[in-house]
From TrEMBL:
NCBIfam families: ogt. Zn(2+) binds at residues 32, 36, 63, 66. It catalyses: a 6-O-methyl-2'-deoxyguanosine in DNA + L-cysteinyl-[protein] = S-methyl-L-cysteinyl-[protein] + a 2'-deoxyguanosine in DNA; a 4-O-methyl-thymidine in DNA + L-cysteinyl-[protein] = a thymidine in DNA + S-methyl-L-cysteinyl-[protein]. One of its GO terms (molecular function) is DNA-binding transcription factor activity. This is methylated-DNA--[protein]-cysteine S-methyltransferase. It comes from the Bacteria. Its cofactor is Zn(2+). Its EC number is 2.1.1.63. The active site is at 32 (nucleophile), 322 (nucleophile). GO terms for biological process: DNA repair; methylation. Binds 1 zinc ion per subunit. It is an enzyme of class 2 (transferase). Keywords: Activator, DNA damage, DNA repair, Metal-binding, Methyltransferase, Transcription, Transcription regulation, Transferase, Zinc.
Length: 352
C-alpha cells in the first residue's frame, strides 16, 4: 500500500484499513487508526506506521478516542509481530543491561526461532534482532541526551559494553557514540551546487564520500533541508572536496559520460534501508521495478510499504536510483523531489 493510498484512507476515514496501519500526528504526538473520527490532520504532519507498537516506540501515544492499540488483527503474522514488538519494548524499557536473545523470545511466545524470524521479517522486512538493535540504539540516544555518560548509556541500552555499541555505530548513528554524545562534534559536511535539467542540484559529502544529493528550485531551501537532515554536523560550503564528484554527476546528466562513475558514498541507515538501497543499485538504467517486486527480491513480500519508506529516505538521489521504482499499477508514486522530476528522470533514461 503506497503512502498516497494510506493518506487517502485516512482522509476518507476508511474502516476497512483499520488494522492495516496506524498514523501518527507530529503536532500532537498521538497516533490513530485510519477511521479515527477526529479532525483530519494536515498531510505534512502525518507519519505512517505498520503497527501500534512501532508508533509507540517512535514516541507517539494512542488516541483515546479511536483506541488504535486495541484493534484486532486477523493476520497471524501481524499478530505475532505485535507480540514480538511488545516483548522487545518491555525488555528495552527495563534497561537491565542484558541482551535479549531470540531464544528468549521464542520461549515466551511458544514458537520456534525460525518461525519467529520468518513471520517478523515478512511484515517488517527486518529480523526481530535487527529491530531490537535499532530500538537499543534509540534508547542509547535518549540516555545520552538525558546526560548519562557513553558507557552508562550503552549499558542501559543493553549493549553490555561500549565496544558492542561501537561495532554498530557506523551503520546506525552515522557517527561514533562519543561524537554523538558531544552533539555531533567532528562530523564535517561540505556542500556544492550545480545546475542541471532537474533544477538546482545540491551535492554534499564528508571526506569519506557523498552523503546527500538533493534537487530543488531554491538553494536556501536545499541548504535548510541539509541542515535539518544533519543537524549535529558542521556544515559549510565546499572549498574543493566535492569538485570531482559534482562534475561526475553533472557530466552524466548532461550526457558527457555514458554511465555514472563509481562515487564513494557515506550513507547511514537501518539494516533494512541498506538492503533496499543496495537492491536499487541493481536496477539498470531505463528499467523499473515495483515496490512489491523489490520486497519479494529481498525475501520480504509483505514489506512493500517498508520498501517505499526506504526509497523515500534515500539521501543520495540519482546515485542510488529510487526513481526507477514504480507502483504495481505501473504509475509513478512518491518521490522526495517531486513526481515531475521523477518523470523527467525516467524519460531522460529511456530517451534514445
Amino acid at each position: 500500500m503506497t503512502q498516497d493510498a494510506k493518506l487517502n484512507a485516512v482522509m476518507a476515514r476508511d474502516k476497512d484499513q483499520d488494522g492495516q496501519f496506524v498514523y501518527g500526528v507530529k503536532t500532537t504526538g498521538i497516533y490513530c487508526r485510519p477511521s479515527c473520527p477526529a479532525r483530519n490532520p494536515k498531510a505534512e504532519n502525518i507519519r505512517f506506521f505498520d503497527l501500534p507498537e512501532i508508533a509507540e516506540a517512535a514516541g507517539f501515544r494512542a488516541c483515546r478516542r479511536c483506541r488504535p492499540d486495541l484493534v484486532k488483527i486477523a493476520d497471524p503474522s501481524l499478530s505475532l509481530t505485535r507480540q514480538i514488538c511488545r516483548i522487545i519494548e518491555r525488555h528495552v524499557s527495563e534497561q537491565s543491561g542484558e541482551r535479549l536473545s531470540l531464544g528468549q523470545i521464542a520461549e515466551e511466545t511458544g514458537y520456534s526461532e525460525d518461525h519467529l524470524s520468518r513471520s517478523f521479517k515478512k511484515v517488517l522486512g527486518i529480523s526481530p534482532m535487527e529491530y531490537y538493535d535499532n530500538r537499543r540504539t534509540e534508547v542509547f540516544k535518549d540516555n545520552v541526551k538525558a546526560g548519562e555518560s557513553v558507557s552508562a548509556a550503552a549499558y542501559g541500552a543493553g549493549f553490555g559494553s561500549t565496544s558492542r555499541l561501537y561495532e554498530k555505530a557506523h551503520a546506525r548513528l552515522g557517527m561514533t557514540p562519543a561524537s554523538y554524545a558531544k552533539g555531533g562534534a567532528g562530523a564535517e559536511i561540505a556542500y556544492a551546487f550545480a545546475d542541471c535539467f532537474l533544477g538546482q542540484m545540491l551535492v554534499a559529502g564528508t571526506r569519506h564520500g557523498v552523503c546527500a544529493v538533493y534537487f530543488g528550485d531554491n538553494k536556501k531551501d536545499l541548504i535548510r533541508e541539509l541542515e535539518q537532515e544533519f543537524y549535529r554536523a558542521e556544515i559549510a560550503a565546499d572549498v574543493g572536496l566535492l569538485a570531482d564528484w559534482s562534475k561526475a554527476i553533472v557530466d552524466f546528466l548532461q550526457g558527457a559520460s555514458a554511465a555514472l562513475p563509481e562515487i564513494p558514498l557515506d550513507m547511514y541507515g537501518t539494516a533494512f534501508q541498506r538492503r533496499v538501497w543496495q537492491a536499487l543499485l541493481e536496477i539498470g538504467p531505463g528499467r523499473t521495478k515495483t515496490y512489491r517486486q523489490l520486497a519479494e527480491d529481498l525475501g520480504a513480500p509483505k514489506s512493500a510499504r517498508a520498501v517505499g519508506r526506504a526509497c523515500a529516505t534515500n539521501p543520495v538521489s540519482l546515485i542510488v536510483p529510487c526513481h526507477r521504482v514504480i507502483g504495481t499499477d505501473g504509475k509513478l508514486h512518491g518521490y522526495r523531489w517531486g513526481l515531475e522530476r521523477k518523470e523527467a528522470l525516467r524519460n531522460w533514461e529511456t530517451a534514445d
